Hints:
By secondary structure, the chain is mainly beta. Helices cover 0% and strands 60% of the residues.
Amino acid sequence: MKTGTVKFFNESKGFGFIVDDETQKEVFVHISGLVDKINQGDKVTYDVTEGRKGPNAIEVRVA
């Protein structure tokens, strides 16, 4: 499990980005990958899968 902070999440559009604690890189997150509801600034844990346009966060949970 990776850890990070929600940089941005637009609930009405269903996507956002998480900044990885270790690499400081942004990871795309889609609403379908959420376990818990997330908001900007939340600390989260997640796994990564390879999507069509790059890495996607899945199994996203508020830490």
